[in-house]
Amino acid sequence: MSDSSGSGPFKVEKDGHVAWLILNRPEKRNAMGLDFFSMLAEHMKRFDEDPEVRVVVIRAEGKCFTAGLDLVEAAAILSGTTANGRETMRRKIMELQESISAIEQCRKPVIAAVHRHCIGGGVDMLSACDIRIATEDAIFAIRETKIAIIADVGTMQRMPAIVGDGWFRELVLTGRDFTAAEALAMGFITRICKDREALNRTAGALAAEIAANAPLTVQGVKDVILFNRDNGVYPGLRYVAQKNSAQLPSDDLMEAVTAFMEKRDPEFKGN
User: Fold this and answer.
1) Alpha helices of the chain — where are they, by DSSP H?
2) Beta bridge partners of 139
3) What is the pTM of this model?
4) H or E stretch including 18?
5) β-pairing, 10-15 with 55-60?
6) If you placed Cys at 132, which of 12, 189, 244, 256 could pair as Cys (CB 3.0 to 4.6 Å)?
């Protein structure tokens, strides 16, 4: 890696145009505390604004990807016994929602690379990512149902569009564990890797392949994907027509044509 930094629940490494956001609280199984959510939003905003970053990969240190929400810390916001206390809790939940949404709102594609357990809030986070891959021993669960909480920071809203309504209802209503093989079959993940070394290698290769494309085009594709999901076919068609007419022709398009004629790989600059 060419550059690395970090403190708190994350560390960041950069390799060319790829930023690696690494969950770095292994002693707590990367449990998601309140600072996790605030710093997640800060990192995603920073990646969005950094012209050198074209793709983000989220991975984790330690024995598992994440054990989900840190229930000890969460207890502080679950103790509202007055109207004001319940309103405070509602506002805090919305803050956590915004932190997860920052992944989706980042213009740069985000790849999640999961090993072993990814529980509860981890599934919320994955549902906001663009691509998910995992090791063959990965285990997922919408565990909130089993502890008498309605999953409330994104899984309920995003996962049905990824895996389909039928699969989603089974998983959220039971709260059961599901394996990497099941996740692949339902389309929640796109690849299974033998071990963590293969996982990181595959994530890096996918990120590099995406980063080699024209960055404004990649960002436009992500934008259109999300618009289509939220607005439907015909509004989506009108939106992509507007998007391309505003963006083309571009220097990167000219570079793509020139590179094709010269039988070489294009070098995109994001212009």
Assistant:
1) 34-49, 71-74, 83-105, 121-127, 155-163, 165-174, 180-186, 196-211, 215-231, 233-247, 251-261
2) 117, 179
3) 0.94
4) strand 18-23
5) unpaired
6) 189
The pLDDT profile of the chain, 271 residues, written as one tens digit per residue, is 455 565 689 999 999 999 999 999 999 999 999 999 999 999 999 999 999 999 999 999 999 999 999 988 877 777 667 888 888 889 999 999 999 999 999 999 999 999 999 999 999 999 999 999 999 999 999 999 999 999 999 999 999 999 999 999 999 999 999 999 999 999 999 999 999 999 999 999 999 999 999 999 999 999 999 999 999 999 999 999 999 999 888 998 888 889 889 989 999 988 8
Is residue 8 a contact partner of residue 38, using CB atoms and an 8 Å limit?
A: no
Cα 65 from Cα 118, distance rounded (Å): 5
Answer for the pair 142, 127: CB distance below 8 angstroms, yes or no: no
Domain boundaries, the chain: 3-211, 215-261
- Tokens 């989706």 — which residue? 104
> By C-alpha distance, which of 62, 49, 58, 68 is closest to 21?
58
Cβ atoms of 143 and 68 closer than 8 Å: yes
Question: CB–CB of 29/117 below 8 Å?
Answer: yes
User: Is the distance from CB of 58 to CB of 21 less than 8 angstroms?
Assistant: yes
Q: What is the residue type of 151?
A: A
Give the span between the Cα atoms of 109 and 188, in whole angstroms.
Answer: 16
At the topology level, CATH places domain 3-211 in 2-enoyl-CoA Hydratase; Chain A, domain 1 (3.90.226)
Helix (H) or strand (E) holding 135: strand 131-135
